[in-house]
Design goal:
By secondary structure, the chain is of the alpha/beta class. The chain is about 25% helix and about 20% strand. The chain has seven helices and eleven strands. Strands 1-4-6-5-7-8-9-10-11 form a nine-stranded mixed sheet, with helices on both faces. It has a two-stranded antiparallel ribbon with strand order 2-3. A hairpin with a 3-residue loop joins strand 2 and strand 3 (about 75). Helix 6 (about 280-295) packs antiparallel against helix 7.
Length: about 325
């Protein structure tokens, strides 16, 4: 699907959903609400124990996992993982210096996209010591029917895919058996995938998630109160975003009640920096890697490096409330 077509579709779904903030007027930040099953406790630091992230650069393996939710929602998942030795066809997963297990990051693509569109970024995460699992959504991926309102169903798709991916850690004979840190999980996504990711911390809260990374995302205005156990959030947004206005993303960021940071790309658009290996992409990649090292490995040294990576080259500014 062309970029112009994708842009028009995303604008249409945001308009159809009555999203506050599309006109540039920021909505009143939502406050978390208590419920019996979604407590609103907040802590000033990640809930994972303090540790040290691996510093070596791993080789990267890739595999496909075929999933289908409820029999009518095919969800093929691309998995990139730290591997021993050079890249190849399903090379042996690597071992960390600690317990041989790697945190998991679930990534959601944008409208008209596919996981491999983001390979430059996601392989950097895998090389840094994360297993990255990215489903291809049945109605919003490239070549699908383009039902943009199906974005509302995607948080449940990600939760289902997460359950299946984590189960690989216990599956006899599976290549990733014993390699997944099933208690250290983050969600991330771009554009409509950012909307999906926000949904996983609001109306569709998945309590297994320890952190979130939102690229050029916002809320559809339904169930916008962040809920559950505190999960640090990193928002990345271009100030010149032509699809999801910067103000709309910033309004949702302001509503996050937990440790958070926002990387604002001064001349960034809707996400071209994620798709090419330029200077801005390297700033985004390095900043997100350090955020994930801190939030999923509990590495305090990584947290201290976030600000320097974010502001390198004066391409972005960082609002740091971590």
């Amino acid at each position: 699907m062309s970029r112009r077509r994708s842009t028009a579709l995303l604008a249409a779904v945001l308009f159809a959903a009555g999203l506050a903030g599309c006109s540039g007027e920021a909505p009143t930040p939502a406050r978390p609400t208590a419920s019996a099953d979604r407590p609103t406790s907040a802590t000033p630091s990640p809930r994972v124990p303090e540790g040290k992230a691996p510093t070596q650069r791993f080789g990267v393996g890739v595999r496909q996992v075929k999933l289908n939710r409820d029999g009518d929602r095919p969800l093929p998942v691309t998995v990139w993982y730290p591997a021993a030795g050079p890249p190849g066809d399903e090379p042996e997963p690597a071992a960390t210096a600690a317990d041989g297990r790697f945190p998991v990051v679930m990534f959601s693509h944008g409208l008209g996209g596919r996981p491999d569109d983001y390979e430059a970024l996601l392989t950097r995460w895998a090389a840094a010591g994360f297993v990255v699992a990215a489903p291809t959504f049945p109605h919003t991926s490239r070549g699908a029917d383009g039902n943009v309102l199906d974005v509302l169903n995607q948080p449940a798709d990600v939760s289902y895919a997460l359950t299946q991916v984590l189960a690989l850690d216990r599956r006899a004979g599976d290549q990733l058996r014993g390699r997944l840190a099933t208690d250290r999980v983050a969600a991330a996504g771009h554009s409509a995938g950012g909307v999906t990711t926000i949904g996983l911390f609001t109306a569709g809260r998945d309590e297994r998630l320890d952190a979130g990374v939102v690229f050029a995302g916002t809320s559809l205005g339904v169930g916008t109160a962040f809920a559950g156990t505190a999960a640090p959030q990193l928002f990345v947004h271009g100030e010149l975003d032509e699809v999801v206005e910067y103000a709309a993303g910033k309004a949702v960021y302001d509503a996050v009640p937990w440790p958070k940071a926002m990387l604002s790309l001064t001349r960034g658009d809707h996400g071209r920096a994620l798709l090419s290996d330029g200077a801005a992409m390297r700033v985004v990649a390095d900043t997100t890697v350090e955020f994930l090292r801190w939030s999923l490995y509990g590495d305090p040294a990584a947290k201290r490096r976030i600000a320097a990576d974010a502001t390198r080259g004066n391409l972005a500014t960082l609002d740091d409330r971590l």
